Amino acid sequence: MSVQSDKLLQMALKAVEDKKAMNVVALDLRNVSPISDFFVICHGNSDTQVQSIATEVRKVVHEAGGLIRGIEGMDAARWVLMDLGDVIVHIFHRDEREYYNIERLWSDAKVVESV
Description:
Subunit structure: Interacts with ribosomal protein uL14 (rplN).
Radius of gyration: 13 Å
InterPro entries: Iojap/RsfS/C7orf30, NT_sf
Family: Belongs to the Iojap/RsfS family.
Strand order of the largest sheet: 3-4-5-2-1-6
CATH architecture: 2-Layer Sandwich
CATH topology: Beta Polymerase, domain 2
Pfam families: RsfS
Helix content: 25-40%
CATH class: Alpha Beta
Strand content: 25-35%
GO molecular function: ribosomal large subunit binding
Number of helices: 4
Number of strands: 6
Oligomer: single chain
Shape: globular
Order of helices and strands: HEEHEEEHHE
CATH superfamily: Beta Polymerase, domain 2
Largest sheet: 6 strands, mixed
């Protein structure tokens, strides 16, 4: 079963916010790149929180019948990348988020104000 990208974005945002992710940003990539429709970028303050956020996203997507195409970085919990197809979720440890600053790399994308 396929979940529409807008609904998938809403689910991912709710999941990261439920686990108290910090500085949550959603970027609309539809007019910028064919990679994905949206990026969700957030961070946690510890390895445990980063893993907890990723686990919640996985749980919510599976319960909705969505498909997770890949998850990288769960063991180290410094930058967890979750490929949900039309939505890619980046969950950083606070220090790595400041270092990589991917919001700057994708500055052509519009920030999603509300869903």
